[in-house]
Prior knowledge:
This protein is α+β, with helices and mostly antiparallel strands. It is 41% helix and 15% strand.
Amino acid sequence: LRRVCDLHNIVLIVDEVQSGFGRTGKWGAYQHFDIEPDLSTWAKSMGSGMPIGCVIGKAHIMDAAEPGTIGGTYLGNPVCCAASLATINYMEAIDINRLGQEVGDRIKNTFERFKDSYACIGSVRGLGAMLAFDLVKDNDPNKPDAEACKKVIQICAEKGLILLSAGIHNNVIRVLSPLTIEKEVLQKGLDIIDSALHQVSESNN
């Protein structure tokens, strides 16, 4: 995309609202690919729940907007700005990127093990702690299994773990656990997913 945008003089905008601030093991997911966007958007984690977001961009683009032409409901809220600064300082202090990579490695290794054990898992993908696996029929990645996904989510909910389905076929389970999660809590969640996958696999045989 960076190459194509440069070739045709197109502005490359990268959305880091969900993937930023350590979620993938780096401040921004784009940093995994040795590129620099023209504009990037940020929010969510940067305010610890307070309503705030920001746009970062190259000067010639940011300065092109006339004064007073950019508006928004939450612009310039001093309380939210203070919360964001405190949050980012805390992220730096605890090395949030390292935590994102460590949590991600643990989850991904477990998901890869699940894939080896259960034919209903088609693929495992993601960066850092932004991970997902998809459920399929007959170990065929071209046969999405939304029903199995729904069953896994339901079983997990009954055991106290909340998961959400994703993907255009509703057959993907995406995991976005806190990067500061305790190892014991993370393991408990993974064990519940393991138990649910085992139950669904047994019922399909």
